[in-house]
Amino acid sequence: MAKIAAKPPSAQLKRTAQRSAKLTEAAVRAATSEDGAQRTLWDVEYKGFGVRVGKTSKTFVVFRRIKGSKQPRYFTLGSYPTMTVDEARTKARHYINQIKDGTDPVYAQRQKEAEGVTFGQAWKLFRERMEARKYSARTVGRYAHYVDKYLGPWLKVPLAQFDPAWLREQHRALKRDIAAGRYALVIKRTSRRAGRRKGARVKPFNRTGEATANHVMQFAAAVYNRARKTYRTLPESPFDAIDRFEMEPRRAAIPRKQLPAWYAGVKEIPNPVRRDLLLLMLFTGLRKQSAISIKWEHVDFEHRTVFIETVKGGRTRQFYLPLSDYLFDLLQARRAENEELAKRRYVPAKSPWVFPCNTDKPSASGHIIDPREHIEGVPFIPHGLRNTFLSEAAEAGVHPYAMEALANHRSPTSTQNARYLRDVSKAIEWLREPMQRITDHLRVVIGERGSTPPDNVLPLPVRQAA
Q1: Do 421 and 273 share a structural domain?
Q2: Contact (Cβ atoms closer than 8 angstroms) between residue 444 and residue 453
Q3: Which of 126, 139, 242, 416 has minimal Cβ neighbours within 10 Å of its Cβ?
Q4: Nearest Cα to 202, choosing from 190, 214, 185, 217?
Q5: Domain-embedded: residue 10
Q6: What is the pLDDT, as a whole number, of residue 250?
Q7: Is there a domain that residue 466 lies in?
């Protein structure tokens, strides 16, 4: 009978080849890999303890089956020579004892690490996330304010000690303290006219504290959830047990029946720069920061566009807004009047800003910071003008996608319109007619004379990108 030749050992067999010996410093130091194939030297003293020898590394491991599981698994102890044989043997003995008791030593170690993580450490991780995601400076400042003003005592509290009942009480207590004026501003100087003493607190009018308490707890929950991505043995978020205070949605948009009164009140504002800023915000729907930071270099009168440099969330994509006839006239008049006001030293001379601050009330930036004004009988906030713009745009029959584009909202990228609008020149021309339609509609609503919508709106030529 012919003899059958033995098959040569495969590479897989070479990688799994094992030897048993007493693991010593000399033995581990002398161990080498044959032809670069990984092999394991097992210790005869502790079953499952060994060192895996590769081409360039030597790693101490424990290979055991946890009580109650079906398959054994590898547990990494450390690398040689960073970890000595005696250190590895001690750690292996500890791991093996835990495995015999049915405990996962790796999970136990992670759980021990997570038990010591404080809210302050979690806040540091969250700040790193904000930096990586390029959060806006305003958002970063608001979150830092929450920590400094409301959550200072939490910084040294371990996250593992956050109890749902304790958090619910913290939520209610924060609401009560804010309503009682505990966190109100403190007067640093004596005001003779107001008759207030130095160090007195000024309680905000009709402040319940519910909205702030909700926002602070929502932020703290985000910090906790960020920490769980690093320390996965932390329990499920205990913030889910908080019953947030039910808030009435703030109707920020100015009701249509009050728009004529609002417009009449704005026209009576003594400061013409602040007057035109509010009108521009109504007729463009721009966010406050975007509106106040427009420079003259951003306004293209030839092609009737304005480039918006500051947008929400720090996004840097280009955003060009077409100017309707009303906005075109408003900005031209504003430029001419700014020159006259500069001669009278009412605003800084040669200011690059469309809406410069007054010389008697200068700002660090050089432009208006707070556009809030009191209009008798029409309470409103500046952001409400953006909501009003979008509400009236819908009433004017503007396509929802055009509304989203004019508002500079984040748009979907999978639609044909989104691909079309990547071309800036096409986007401006596509949005020019909706912008004019909204302007004509608003002028009718506010009761301005001679505001009949035209039959046709012809697009003006737009400078092509180089």
Answers
A1: yes
A2: yes
A3: 416
A4: 185
A5: no
A6: 59
A7: no
Assess whether 144 and 50 both reside in one domain: no
pTM of the model: 0.58
The H or E element containing residue 129 is: helix 119-133
Q: Where is mean pLDDT largest: 3-7, 209-213, 353-357?
A: 353-357
Looking at residue 46, its pLDDT comes to 81
**Does residue 173 share a domain with residue 222?**
yes
d(Cα 396, Cα 43) in Å, to the nearest integer? 81
Q: C-alpha angle with apex 277: 273 to 280, nearest 5 degrees?
A: 135
* 316 and 220 inside one domain: no
Do 97 and 73 fall within a single domain?
yes
> How far apart are the C-alpha atoms of 155 and 145, rounded to whole Å?
14
Summarize pLDDT for 361-377 with one digit per residue, the tens.
888 889 999 999 999 99
Residues 128 and 206 in one domain: yes
Q: Is there a single domain that holds both residue 326 and residue 261?
A: yes
Q: How far apart are the first and last CA of the chain?
A: 86
Domain containing residue 30: 18-103
Report d(CA 175, CA 187) in Å as an integer: 22
Q: Long-range contacts for 364-371 (Cβ within 8 Å, ≥24 apart)?
A: 365/293, 367/292, 367/293, 368/273, 368/274, 368/277, 368/292, 369/292, 371/274, 371/277, 371/278, 371/281, 371/288, 371/291, 371/292
